[in-house]
Amino acid sequence: MKYFLSLSIIFTICLGQWSSSPDDPLWLGDGVQAQVRATSDGGAYVAWLSDGNYHVYLQHLN
Question: Is 41 helix (H, G, I), strand (E, B) or coil?
Answer without folding.
Answer: coil
